[in-house]
Fold each of these.
Amino acid sequence: MIHMLKNIRQIFARRFDDAYFNAAVSVAASMCNSETFSAYKCRHYGQSIALCGAGPSLSEYKPIEGAIHIALNRALMRKEIKFDYFIADDWEGIRFFQDTLLKYPCEKFFGHQIGCEYIRQIPESFRIDSNAKRYYTDSYMLGGHKSRFICDIDKMAIGNFPNIALSAMQIVLFMRPSKIYLVGCDASSNGHFFDKSPDEPQMLKKEMQQFLSGDQTIQKWLELKSFIEAFYPDIEVISINPVGLKGLFHDVYQ
């Protein structure tokens, strides 16, 4: 009986510790994201933004004149495009070109994924050296893709998803452009336009490609479409040279 009571006390103690930690992280996320994103609300109202993922179709993209360009992960390696912003939240996806990223002249956002393994978090020292702004993403993806899209990214953690383009879209929508061009967001298992990543284990790369192109990811894109129609009906989303997202938004081929 005493042993049972001891186990019960230990269970409740762990739950209390977890609840306390989660509450503290939620406060930290709110404060950090407020500091990072408050100045970006409606910053690009009425303009066009091209959100560039690193899918193979990025190689076919002809830069749209006058559009604000945002690079996700290794899309920054596309030298023909002058990027205005860079977004990443996974060290494994950017460390192999960290020297280029460190020097690249654009505004940078580095995400901190709540609950993610340390090895995947972008080092705080590198963020500081890169002069990048920090933001939090939630932990619900760890429970089976349960994250939700949010409007108030300046008040709470951004919804975290298996494809960073889904997370980054919440930042882009917050900037209130009139048009969003999805470029290189292929949602397929065909790799990247630029696969030179010597430090990335081939097995990990294969597993990640399968993960990113799964049915759950496509389902989240469908959920994003409904979210945009409900909260940002005045923003037009256009897929450039679409692959996995064909037929989901307005398709344009170059």
Amino acid sequence: VIYEDDSLKPEVGKQKTEKLIEADKVDFVVGYIWSNVLLASLKPLVDSKTFTIVANAGPSQLAGEQCSPYVFSTSWNNDQTPQAVGTYMNQKGVKTAFLIGPNYAAGKDMLEGVASTFKGQIVGRELTTWPSQLDFSAELSKARAAKPDAIFAFYPGGAGIQFITQYSQSGLKSQIPLYTAFTIDDLS
């Protein structure tokens, strides 16, 4: 078993993938947590016909234009769960929504997932710098100014904690309902 660390960086992930394929001559690769790292690494995997099991990353391209018989996902497509959230928002009578997420493959897929099923009007959409941005005050101010019925946000890991903390501290928690996918659980 050979382990490599992509450092959450697409260019590093691609280099490590190429090393596993070319230098280590692995029979298969298992892993990939971040969608942007997987997308950067996908071409070498497919071109070499290396059997790949994706543990978490779920870029929509994997089930679409970049689908491959050599690559299998054990998780989901990033846009699936937020499609359900968009449908749920419709059921709750939400007429206008503001969407916020990180500017990388999973963030874009999450916002597109909601947009694909939400029947109301999207009054704003913000993609933030990933992974370095942890201050969301500007985006929350834009959301407040847009006066939506609801906010949809996706932020994984520590960024999610920061977003929820700032959402609450800004006073929006008592003013505009928040819908999320993979940011908070049902206890929040």
Amino acid sequence: MNLSARARWAVGVAAVIGLAFIYIPLSVVVINSFNASQVFSWPPTEFTTMWWQKALENTGVREALWTSVQAGLGATLIALLLGTALSFALVRYDFFGRSTLNFLVVLPISLPGIVTGIALNSSFTTVLQPLGINLGLFTVVLGHATFCIVVVFNNVSARLRRTGTSLEEASADLGASLWQTFWFVTFPAVRSALVAGALLAFALSFDEIVVTTFTAGPGVETLPQWIFNNLFRPNQGPIVNAVAALLLLIFIAPVWLAQRLSGSETHAGGRV
């Protein structure tokens, strides 16, 4: 589509405004992580890497980061298994109540976190505690999986609807077994959707704080909780900025890899 000069100018201005709206606050956090001042101040009077060193040496940061990684990986694994299975069931098969079940699957992502947290806390204390399972990392993983399933389900369902069943039917007609059809036809078609869903599920889990507060129990603290608890404590603000900047740098690599993978599959197989 060809745009006029005025339209291209308007699109360019809108793009610059949008990018500035997103990245200026992130840039402020990164710059402040090198600010020598112990309180929030702008502009920085002097630059230092001291806060990065203290963030890396902080035991609470390392433990909270490891807790968040464990919770994210556990919730993502559950989401991949259940979300993918649900997407195949609801897209590939027609049965009574399918639309209702589809609504129930996607509902948790639209509920306020406070409602989900209270419901999960009540359920866990009523059902799991009598069985000897107290609130902890396991319940955090289960809580995060409730909404992580939705993002995997949506990604895989969209890809299954786009690809249709013609390739799978052709594979079966040529004598391939059910497993061969899945491995050589279906899985390559949904692979990038699984990667995108897994990345989004992990990011949602890693970022979650409301549901975590209701399901973590004493002694379990994720990194978002650590940041929230230390943000306004004396002399902790610069360390929080350094932790936030470090997370920003860490999450660049997975997003870049996912883009490269999706781009490679698009050029190689003609899929989007």
Amino acid sequence: MDAPLATLDPSLIAKFAAIVGEGHALTGAADIAPYVTERRGLWPGCTGLVLRPGSTAEVSRILRLASETRTPVVPQGGNTGLVGGQMPDRTGREIVLSLSRMDRIREIDPLSNTITAEAGVVLEKLHEAADGVGRHFPLTLASQGSCQIGGNLSSNAGGTGVLAYGNARELCLGVEVVLPTGEVLDDLRKLKKDNTGYDLKNLFVGAEGTLGVITAAVMKLFPKPKGKEMAWAGMASPQHALRLFELASDRAGASLTAFELIGATPLSFARKHAPHAAQPLQGDWPWNVLMEISSGRSAEDARSLVEDILAAALEAEIIGDATIAASIAQGVSFWKLRETISEVQKLEGGSIKHDISVPTSSIPDFIARGDAAVASVCPNARVVCFGHMGDGNLHYNVSQPVGADTGEYMALYRKMNKAVHDVVRSLNGSISAEHGIGQLKRDELLATAPAVGIDLMRRIKAAFDPACIMNPGKVI
């Protein structure tokens, strides 16, 4: 790790360390390194101090001291973010506040279908806790073995279950938040109906740590499905995928719990770099759909539903081929193939990524116009299109041409972003569907969002964080 450009005053470090104990105040370069390195390698950071509090009271004392001394604080969960929202800057003045020690599940209430968890609880651990009482927590991400629920809420994470269950914001009933002043908002209520004034929790969910630090949350649980089926279908075009989605939605309703679109290019990358991954269909199709049907009634009901949908789609020539997972293990292998795509894309060189959403009905139009926009910037670039078609969110990534110089290609980042995002905005879509704004999209948000909206966000920021210490340089 490079030395910071500035250093924190040793006496100030000592004051912060006294709050958490010296063993949880990291100052050595080797100890700090994991907290200032993120998976995409785009936003290397520097800090002289990482604090790992073990309680809400300690977080409160840290933020109170930070406000008094005007010390910037960068909250961090599992460090799995993709837009640089969890990274300190290069000045060395910002301290990192890691919530990883706050990993206690405070309560599980199966009758109310809620679980109350601290911010540092790893998402997979929350899944396991819910499963242990016969319940289902539907937020599902490729990084669930390391991401933490506080970070999931701060970024309003999405994932593959949004179609049926909603994103992190819709799964959250209440929060405990430490404000920059050190005050604690205890709003850990389990109520599904509550119209007593402003819904304050939703100011913090999706705010990326710019207004305060979420230290705990009440999340919704659901009954475990009694039957679940995974199917993989091949088809000729996104228009055919949209017709399949309409058919599946009509016949399955809320039982359609996932609908993932996968183009031929990302699938070819997976086959090339992960040859042992599942190969659901024998032939190659321009487009593929991974569909999940869940039934609250029975396994037989789920099977009947998926068979009915695929039979009707084949008869209507919406799809050309399909298969249903023959076992739970094969269904898991379908999902692993889908999740492999992000990782194997790195092996194809430089990638310019877009996390966009448009109305589901506009997805075929977006793909056609997006492909043309990409070609106008870099004619031989390879579009890697996949994602959560059921909720309108696509990961529309663009890999460098074969044999191209990576540095020269990545120099096109802003130009490519603008071309693709112009198409998104023309369809009334969003340039950030589930990854957040962070550093990556901050300038574009400020340049393109409605002026009144930006002004309102700045007013909220000033009201909550008058000392301007919370995650500076992110979002706004």
